[in-house]
Amino acid sequence: MENALKDWQGRELRRLTKDMVAKRHQQLTRDSGGAYANLTMRVLRSVYNFAASTYEDDDGNSLLPVNPVVRLSATRSWNKEKRRNRFISEAELPAWFKAVIAYKQNAGIGTAVTVADYLLFMVFTGLRRSEAASLAWADVDLANKAFTVRDTKNGEDHTLPLSDFLLALLKERRQVTEGSAWVFPSEKGDTHLKEPRKHAQRISEASGVAFTFHDLRRTFVTYAERLDISAYAVKRLVNHKMSQDVTAGYIGNDIERLRKPMQAVTDYLLRVGGVER
Predict the structure, then answer these.
(1) pTM (2 decimals)?
(2) CA neighbor of 96 nearest in space, from 207, 258, 200
(3) Confidence band for 232, pLDDT divided at 50, 70 and 90
(4) Which architecture characterizes domain 93-273 according to CATH?
């Protein structure tokens, strides 16, 4: 909304036409790719639908005309998207870890330490980027070696154990973030870290490993499964819903059950990545 549709921010929703939507979708597809164009229009569709359902006249009729994004469905203009399955391979892990650690030691970049620790935290936990970035110190329990993520994608709090590497990382961050409520604060310190794409790009160039933030989540899941960790444990580690699995409903959510598999993934990544403890 603030980038792809910035010039529409002051425009009344009822003034958005189907032609405008179709042309903007085509433009975004050319300039930023099909997936980005689709995502932009899905967001617009959601905002419009919310407004149409919220604002009505005295007779209960919506004050807005038909959602203009329907044009994309009617004309079959949505871009076809391939599901990504990219992760950092064993051959790439040493170069990636080396680049991240080197970036952390770069005193010339103000947020270098925060960004490097953020990337390491994600690859060793499998968290989604927003979940890791918004982690608050109030939800970190160093004494019991655990942390809790709030406002997750599936709407449930997600508590995980800390492996030895993560515990050391957070203890170190506790010292460098003194006075901040966030584990990964922004450069100004008044809020948490946002998506540090430029920093990630520099690390990608330095390592020769092209990666996205979600690739780090897939990397964690890939190696967890490769270690023959049970499917139930893997799902619990990455907070996937198991509501359709009858057996899973009988398994308790005790985080101590996850401590061993969490440590196993950490040990594997460190060993393959050639990282000294």
Answers:
(1) 0.72
(2) 207
(3) confident
(4) Orthogonal Bundle (1.10)
